UniProtKB/TrEMBL annotation:
Gene3D superfamilies: Lipid/polyisoprenoid-binding, YceI-like. Residues 11-175 form the Lipid/polyisoprenoid-binding YceI-like domain. PANTHER family: PROTEIN YCEI (PTHR34406:SF1). InterPro entries: Lipid/polyisoprenoid-bd_YceI, TTHA0802/YceI-like_sf. It comes from Portibacter lacus. This is UPF0312 protein.
Length: 180
């Protein structure tokens, strides 16, 4: 999923080896089940290592790559009462705003699509820090957190045992791409 913006904007390459899309779901009111999507693509355009106001972010996660540490549960999550992977193989997010709220903190608003349903969500983005790669390119880290109501997206299986509010946690490293 690509985002087109002005040609002079900073492009960032997501370091998939140092990034993750994870979630926590409260189970039976007494514990949490966590999981992650092992396969995803993401883009980030705009911003500088010091200020990301106005940046654009997007990601697409492959539902087939869901991993909660239990194969039976993963297979159930792929069925139609949860993600309906056969008809909706991806989950996607495209930002509509990236606003600085205080030092190193941003609010990211955008459209999240799951199971064919798109809703606006708000995510907090903590700019962890910036550094340089060995070859002098800028590298930046973020942690994104937020909550979504899975029922808003039709992901409503196991209503009696899985809470509707799902915690989202993404750790992301981006770097300037190498010049050709």
């Amino acid at each position: 999923m690509l985002i087109a913006i002005s040609s002079n904007a900073q492009s960032w390459k997501v370091d998939a080896n140092h990034s993750s899309i994870m979630f926590n779901a409260k189970h039976s009111g007494i514990s949490f089940i966590n999981g992650r999507f092992m396969e995803f693509e993401a883009t980030m355009e705009g911003g500088t290592p010091e200020d990301f106001t106005g940046a654009k972010v997007s990601f697409t996660a492959q539902v087939n790559s869901i991993n909660t540490g239990a194969e039976g549960r993963d297979n159930h999550l792929k069925r139609n009462d949860f993600f309906d992977m056969e008809n909706h193989p991806t989950i996607s997010f495209v930002s509509t705003s990236f606003t600085k709220t205080e030092d190193n903190m941003y609010t990211v608003v955008g459209n999240l699509t799951m199971k064919g349903n798109t809703k606006e969500v708000e995510i907090a983005a903590h700019h962890i820090g910036s550094t340089k790669t060995r070859d002098g390119r800028n590298k930046v880290g973020f942690q994104l957190t937020g909550n979504v109501d899975r029922n808003d997206f039709g992901v409503s299986g196991a209503a009696g045992s899985v809470a509707p509010i799902i915690e989202i946690l993404c750790n992301v490293e981006v770097e300037e791409p190498k010049e050709n």
